[in-house]
Amino acid sequence: MILTTITLAAIAAATLPVAGYLAGVRRGRRARAALRAAHASATARAEQAETARASGPDQRAVLSQELQRVLAPVLASPQPAAVEALQHELRALHDSISTRERGNDAFRDEVRTQLSTILRQAGNPEQLQRSLQKAMAPLLEHKQDGSSDLQRVITEALAPLLERERTGYELSTIRTSGGLGALPALLDTIAQKAALSSLVLSDEAGLPLAASSDARDVDALAGTAAFFLTLSDRAERTGQPRPLSSVLLDDANRMTIHRTFTVGAARYTLSGVARGRSLAPGALDPALLSVERALLQQDYS
User: Fold this and answer.
1) By residue range, what is the domain housing residue 228?
2) Of the N and C termini of the chain, which has fewer Cβ atoms inside 10 Å?
3) Residue 37: is it exposed, middle or buried by C-beta count within 10 angstroms (0-12/13-18/19+)?
4) What is the per-residue DSSP string for 5-45?
5) Are residues 255 and 249 in contact, defined by beta-carbon separation less than 8 angstroms?
């Protein structure tokens, strides 16, 4: 019995390493099979990617081919016609982009034309307002889009015209009750309404007859006015139209207007100075009537 047990134990001890070896062999086979399958799958995917890359064109190659196709006519032409054709296309594109701006410019010109006609006919601000409303109605009907731009255009066109009309109307309504002695006060009123810093009345000899209260460089203004009269005489002697008004801009951003007029046989010049704003040659015309009336009265009361 003991001998049998010893024999069985010896057999078990001898077969145990063999069984372990056989189990390890089976596991190794399964692992190698899994590795071969993974390698085959990876190889297949790599081959598919390579096939796709070879069959599809590279993006840079596509762009290069397209660029060459576009530039080929220009590069192949020894004449400048191809370049001129491209320039023509660019100009056409520029024109199409600026179509809206040209339309706005045309509308702005139409508005200003209408306003200029109205201002020449208007006699007072109330009549001017009625005329403006009548003239702007058809323009507004034809320009329904871009309301903010339209408002800006109308405001820009109206501002200087209405200001000039208002100033001209106020100057034309000035009344004087005295003669030569009332000239300083009259010039003060004109200077205030016309926003002039200086206003001087001088004769044809260049002597100042009256000036506004805050006028500066009175003698210099009167002397320049006499020089302007000399130029007027020279133009008349050569058969040229006689200038009546002159507007000068100096390097101090001042604008000076000299307006000549005649009362009886005597000639006078009304000279005004404005700083930082423009003056039209006819800016003092509405005030001439009141000055002429004062000069016709030869008393100094």
Assistant:
1) 178-296
2) N
3) exposed
4) HHHHHHHHHHHHHHHHHHHHHHHHHHHHHHHHHHHHHHHHH
5) yes
Helix (H, G, I), strand (E, B) or coil at 188: helix
Residue 122 has pLDDT above 70, yes or no: no
Report pTM.
0.51
- Lay out the sheet containing 254-263: strands in order across: 208-211, 198-203, 266-275, 254-263, 245-249
In this structure, is the dihedral angle defined by the CA atoms of residues 154, 159, 160 and 164, taken in order, positive or negative? positive
**The last residue of a domain, from among 144, 171, 198:** 171
pLDDT, tens digit, for every residue of 61-102? 555 555 555 545 544 555 455 455 555 555 655 565 556 555
CATH of residue 198: 3.30.450.30
Exposure pattern of 198-212 as b/e (b: 16+ CB <10 Å)? Answer: bbbbbbbebebbbbb
Residues 129 and 191 reside in one and the same domain: no
Q: Are 273 and 256 in contact (CB under 8 A)?
A: yes
**Residue 183 and residue 151 share a domain:** no
Pair 233, 269 in one domain:
yes
User: What length does the chain have?
Assistant: 301
Is there a domain that residue 61 lies in? Answer: no
Task: Domain count for the chain, please give it.
Answer: 2
For the residues 179-191, what does the mean pLDDT come to? Answer: 88
Number of Cβ atoms within 10 Å of the Cβ of 6: 10
Cα gap 162→282, rounded to integer Å: 15
Asked if residue 153 and residue 229 are part of one domain, the reply reads: no
